[in-house]
Amino acid sequence: MYSANDRCDHENDVEQLKNGLPALHSPVDTLESNWAYMVITALAWNLKAWIALSIPESPRWGEQHRRQKREVLRMEFKRFVNAFIRIPCQVLTTSRRTIYRLLAWNPYLSVFSRFVSVLRE
Asked: Which one of 1, 15, 75, 104 has the minimum C-beta count within 10 Å?
């Protein structure tokens, strides 16, 4: 009964691969360079999934954190790049530490900060 809904989800993934992340468009003419382009695209897609799956969930905010994790996992690639990669940041270096100042706000900064806390551990 609900198998059509499952199929639609795969159609969305194929659409993202074709348009959002141009994995199926080979920009060059040699077979090796096309292979390298596909590998780079697959790594970017896997990075998105790895970040989404490694976001921690605290027991107090468990439902909200699970919802945010699922949202990041199902996010289109262009939106992921704008929310997590293209964050304007000012880097200040002092004698003993490096300070990163985020210069803009987006709704995913709380998720991003939880992910950064996992990287620091």
From this structure: 1
